[in-house]
């Protein structure tokens, strides 16, 4: 009876469910200069857009139920984590998402980058090339 009086239970006798609230996450790269982007993310605007376009298909969520982060937002969260070396909680507080969201985003972006490694990371195939590369690295 007390639950009914205090609004915890509906008229049908079931507990009222709290309505979920979705915060709008409106961070973009438009409000920053190239220097500010490099200071925060270690990449300029063109590079961030290139990475986003490259990974967009892997990062896009196919759901109509929730409010998924855009590919750009996911790339920005991951780059912020990589660039700052901060904890997940700190990055989440900075951009306005939960620590678990940051963790999932960093994992997804990292896997998407690793899936593209064959296109961008080339290792020497012969011993002579490897030796000259080692020498050049230390010079």
Automatic annotation (TrEMBL):
UniProt-recorded name of the protein: Nuclease HARBI1
InterPro entries assigned to the protein according to its UniProt record, in alphabetical order: HARBI1_animal
């Amino acid at each position: 009876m007390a639950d009914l009086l205090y609004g915890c239970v509906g008229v049908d006798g079931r507990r009222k469910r709290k309505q979920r609230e979705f915060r709008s996450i409106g961070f973009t790269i438009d409000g920053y200069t190239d220097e500010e982007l490099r200071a925060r993310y270690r990449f300029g605007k063109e590079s961030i857009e290139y990475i986003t376009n490259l990974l967009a298909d892997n990062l896009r969520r196919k759901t109509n139920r929730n409010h998924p982060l855009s590919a750009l937002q996911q790339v920005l969260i991951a780059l912020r984590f990589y660039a700052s070396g901060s904890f997940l909680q700190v990055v989440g507080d900075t951009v306005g998402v939960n620590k678990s969201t940051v963790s999932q985003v960093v994992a997804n972006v990292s896997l998407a980058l690793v899936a593209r490694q064959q296109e961008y990371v080339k290792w020497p195939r012969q011993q002579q090339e490897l030796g000259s590369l080692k020498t050049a690295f230390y010079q």
